[in-house]
TrEMBL record:
Domain (GRF-type): residue spans on this chain: 174-220
UniProt source species: Vibrio alfacsensis
This protein's UniProt keywords: Metal-binding, Zinc, Zinc-finger
InterPro entries named in the record: DUF2726, UCP028063_topo_Znf, Znf_GRF
Full protein name: DUF2726 domain-containing protein
């Protein structure tokens, strides 16, 4: 019994020394870091560009915003409950936050559905997202990847929450690189005289699209 007690004491002393000297010294070490690259990639970047075009000068778009930077727990006096509520939003984020251009006050939250399978973690985040937006009285709009190429439709969705935004002719973005597309007219060949969309980054990007292509316009 005495031997067990001595071993326990030695272990406690050992962990105390490790925590006080080794870990403390390690906290002051200058570790090397490197950039992770663009904040948004692929579909997220294309959708961000579509949102910016949709709101124009009437709003500012922020991406991957920590929930705790936008909302805070309300009327919670119990310290333990306040900690839990604060920790829940501190570990999650909003895909896109549309803000007033003058005050930067959040006006609309936009959630992008990337088409990936619904996992347990994704389902829990969506449940939290709907709850916090409803309780904080923040409009929540769900959008899919196809909205990246339907700026006119995005304008109609946002116009209900942001003053001055008006729907106009559709603006499309390249499905290959996410850049704005421009309208051109074929001047030769079988389709001479017909209009079509082409990527504004030509010749670096050669993606083109039929001018009369019809997108699905059913409500999400």
């Amino acid at each position: 019994m005495t031997n067990i007690f001595i071993i326990v004491v030695l272990l406690v002393v050992f962990f105390f020394i490790i925590q006080k000297y080794v870990i403390k010294h390690d906290d002051t070490r200058d570790y090397p870091y490197q950039s992770k690259g663009p904040l948004l990639r692929g579909q997220e970047s294309a959708f961000y560009n579509a949102l910016r075009s949709a709101v124009g000068e009437h709003a500012v778009v922020f991406a991957k915003v920590n929930m705790a930077s936008v909302i805070t727990p309300k009327s919670i006096k119990n310290k333990k409950q306040l900690f839990v509520a604060s920790n829940r939003i501190a570990r999650s984020y909003f895909d896109y936050v549309i803000c007033d251009p003058r005050t930067l006050e959040p006006r609309v939250i936009v959630e992008l559905d990337n088409g990936q399978p619904l996992t347990k973690g994704k389902a829990e985040r969506q449940k939290l997202l709907m709850h916090v937006c409803k309780s904080a009285n923040l409009p929540l709009i769900g959008a899919s990847v196809k909205h990246s190429y339907q700026v006119g439709r995005l304008r109609r969705l946002l116009a209900a929450h942001i003053d001055l935004i008006e729907s106009d002719k559709e603006i499309r973005f390249c499905k290959k690189c996410g850049s704005p597309m421009v309208i051109k007219t074929a001047n030769q060949g079988e389709f001479k005289g017909r209009r079509f969309f082409t990527c504004s980054r030509q010749p670096n990007c050669t993606y083109t699209e039929n001018y009369n292509v019809v997108f699905d316009t059913e409500d999400e």
